[in-house]
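Bumping my old thread because nobody answered last time. Still need a sequence for this structure:
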């Protein structure tokens, strides 16, 4: 994403041409960037040769899933609907892992019938439910157990998943008990120890601590796991200040772990594959003068991009066209939804803006469209993909009539 003659271009494609053809807000993705991100992960973890299962919850657009599948990735799903989608996208069942704390019976039954690689269970009750269904279907099911390692990922509280107060996984004591339950079962094979400590992690040390805990639990269990599923959580540079996770250090830590434990590694990255591949193009409806700041009211709202309202997450906002003139006012970028939390950012020393100008909200590929809603009876936005020098429609803008 660069400016050429003060006009924004993505993969040499002039973004202003999209605004001339389509109504905003628009999610715009770069296929080139998706491929680069996948290759970057494969390059850094080449020695480990992990099974990379894309975390579908980050973005479940079917056409994007088909592009991801072409890069030889598997999928991590957390619902029956996601499982159906990845199968429809052509991802092989033996590259699919089913995670999540609350799988209902019908979802477990569907997963078993499709012979997926693993169902990662997160409680004793779920283990017993899998066994009951497998017995009824006269099948032997490959399962994993998710360990809660009580490791602080040093990330946003709302996206932490690996501490003892989080709902995910089971503690060491319960984990060891569940191993014995599965070992006695005639309808389950225990194949995997699964773990996931959180999201948007930019420091390798939480992963280092997690691997120490996993190593200790494996020793205590005296069990040979075929797979260790290390989850995802690798962060991206939302601030655009070159803060990146050191993948080399993380890779070296895993290599040391594998010298002690002979197993296959599974990763479940979502954000690191799709997060920085998309922008949200939005138009200024009004600029409303306030007491100490001006409210820049956009046609994109919290229903289009929920992360700032949900987590207080920050996304860089840049103009479609750059000018040198600066505003003397503080700008608060807000949406039109009837909520005070429908706000994106407050910025000083921004360039002078006018009503009807276009702005770009950056790094919205992960948990952007997937968390979008029809709140205030607002249609979901258009999604497009820049594919070389062409634009492909990923999903059409909803019409108001669709919501009636």
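Sorry it took so long. Here it is:
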């Amino acid at each position: 994403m660069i400016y050429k003659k003060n006009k924004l271009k993505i993969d040499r494609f002039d973004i202003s041409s999209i605004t001339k053809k389509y109504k905003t807000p628009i999610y715009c993705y770069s296929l080139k960037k998706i491929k680069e991100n996948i290759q970057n992960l494969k390059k850094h973890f080449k020695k480990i040769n992990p099974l990379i299962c894309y975390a579908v919850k980050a973005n479940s657009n079917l056409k994007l899933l088909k592009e991801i599948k072409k890069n030889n990735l598997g999928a991590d799903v957390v619902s029956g609907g996601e499982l159906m989608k990845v199968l429809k996208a052509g991802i092989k069942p033996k590259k699919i892992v089913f995670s999540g704390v609350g799988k209902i019976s019908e979802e477990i039954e569907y997963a078993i019938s499709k012979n997926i690689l693993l169902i990662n269970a997160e409680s004793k009750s779920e283990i017993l439910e899998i066994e009951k269904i497998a017995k009824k279907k006269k099948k032997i099911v490959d399962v994993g157990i998710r360990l809660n390692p009580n490791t602080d990922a040093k990330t946003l509280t709302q996206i932490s998943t690996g501490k003892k107060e989080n709902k995910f996984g089971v503690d060491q004591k319960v984990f060891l008990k569940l191993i014995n339950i599965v070992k006695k079962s005639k309808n389950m094979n225990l194949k995997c120890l699964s773990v996931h400590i959180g999201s948007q992690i930019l420091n390798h040390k939480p992963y280092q601590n997690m691997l120490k805990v996993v190593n200790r639990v494996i020793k205590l269990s005296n069990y040979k796991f075929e797979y260790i599923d290390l989850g995802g959580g690798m962060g991206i540079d939302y601030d655009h200040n070159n803060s990146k996770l050191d993948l080399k250090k993380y890779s070296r830590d895993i290599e040391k772990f594998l010298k002690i434990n002979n197993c296959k590694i599974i990763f479940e990255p979502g954000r690191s594959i799709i997060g920085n591949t998309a922008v949200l193009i939005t138009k200024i409806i009004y600029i409303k003068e306030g007491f100490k700041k001006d409210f820049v009211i956009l046609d994109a709202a919290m229903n289009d991009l929920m992360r700032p309202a949900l987590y207080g997450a920050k996304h860089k906002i840049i103009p479609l066209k750059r000018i040198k003139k600066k505003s003397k006012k503080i700008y608060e970028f807000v949406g039109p939804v009837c909520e005070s939390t429908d706000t994106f950012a407050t910025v000083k020393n921004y360039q002078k803006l006018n009503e009807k100008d276009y702005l770009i909200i950056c790094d919205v590929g992960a948990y952007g469209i997937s968390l979008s809603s029809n709140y205030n009876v607002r249609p979901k936005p258009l999604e497009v993909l820049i594919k070389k020098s062409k634009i492909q429609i990923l999903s059409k803008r909803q019409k108001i009539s669709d919501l009636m």
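The longest strand covers residues 278-289. Let me know if any region looks off to you.
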